[in-house]
Amino acid sequence: MARTADDSWDIATSVGATAVMVALARAAETASADPLIRDQFAEPLVSTPALDGVREQVTAWWAGAEDDDPDGAVRAQEMINYQAVRTHFFDAYFAAAAAAGIRQAVIVAAGLDSRAYRLDWPAGTTVYEIDLPKVLEYKAETLAGSTPIAVRRPVPVDLRHDWPKALREAGYDASQPTAWLAEGLLPFLPAAAQEALFVSIDALSASGSRVAVENFGVDVDKRREAEERWAELKAKREARGQDTSFNPFDLWFEDEGRPDCGEWFATHGWTVQTVNAREEATRLGREPQNDDRPFANTFITATRG
Ligand SMILES: C[S@@+](CC[C@H](N)C(=O)[O-])C[C@H]1O[C@@H](n2cnc3c(N)ncnc32)[C@H](O)[C@@H]1O
User: Where is this region: Disordered (predicted)?
Assistant: First the structure.
């Protein structure tokens, strides 16, 4: 594993590059013939010269195949489908929270999420975005010519540190109901930081608050098989002198001791709903991910009464 307790990154390195990976999928979906979601900011965010090398690496990892191998195109499309379905789900979550009168949102590990700029937020909504300083700086600089629809408050802090303090200092009001989102995050946090994240969300949530979490159900055997496929491809690419340093599995903390996210919130008095990502894909007319993928993800939403 390539992680240390207090490691740090920018948008082009380590965990930062995973934000590029998912934004690349949103850009591809947006440019497709019949897109499920429209993220017009994804393309400019991933197209800067600073990300030239990262784009090549992450698309190679995604596909898990040589550039001219048809399996690679199929696998890349699976990834795009999954990201489209997940974005669609959490976009709808925020729309429902806004319709219920919530005017404060916190996107933890926001990465290149452009929801503050592209969702139809009611007037008076504030969106707090938590991520590492350089990741948030990159997004603000790249989108400098665009105006967010909500009031956007960046909160540059590591989620392994005292992020509630930083959030409060950025203006967060714990007396108001909030819609929280943790999308594409949990495996990148140590188990203790995940627990602390949930404890703080619980403590900072007024009555009527909501939370949404992408829960990663990892199949250890399938993950090993995916790693083996990648190792073969990596060796070939390295022999050609290509950079293969990007591998999200290297960036994951192990799952040991992690509670089920839905159960955690249910135990703490939230009303929880769980949506299976494959079933959601089918509902939306998208091919669910192939069985050999190492994930059986769920989308958890919960409401505090
Ligand atoms: C896969 S990306 C997901 C980004 C965004 N949520 C999305 O779905 O587009 C993971 C993000 O988590 C952020 N992240 C991971 N660990 C973090 C930590 N300890 N503190 C702050 N941000 C973190 C990374 O910087 C990166 O932007």
Answer: 284-305
Indicate whether residue 185 lines ligand 1 (CB < 6 A).
yes
Helices (H) and strands (E) in the chain, counts: 11, 7
- How many angstroms separate the alpha carbon of residue 171 from the centre of ligand 1? 21
- Nearest protein CA to atom 23 of ligand 1, as residue: 109
Cα angle value 143/111/252 (rounded, 5°)? 160
Give 273's strand partners: 301
Determine the Cα–Cα distance for residues 211 and 281; give it in Å rounded to an integer.
21
* CA 246 – CA 21 distance, rounded (Å): 10
- Residue range 91-138, pLDDT digits in tens: 999 999 999 999 999 999 999 999 999 999 999 999 999 999 999 999
Nearest atom within ligand 1 for CA of residue 111: 27
Q: Burial, 227: exposed, middle or buried (Cβ in 10 Å; 0-12, 13-18, 19+)?
A: middle
- 74-93 pLDDT tens trace: 788 989 999 999 999 999 99
For tokens 């990596």, the residue is: 234
Element (H, E) at 180: strand 179-182
**Residue 19 CA, closest ligand 1 atom number:** 2
- Residue 296's contacts (CB-CB under 8 Å, 6 or more residues apart) are 217, 219, 276, 277, 278
Compute the chain's Rg from CA coordinates.
19
Q: Which CATH architecture has domain 15-243+262-304?
A: 3-Layer(aba) Sandwich (3.40)
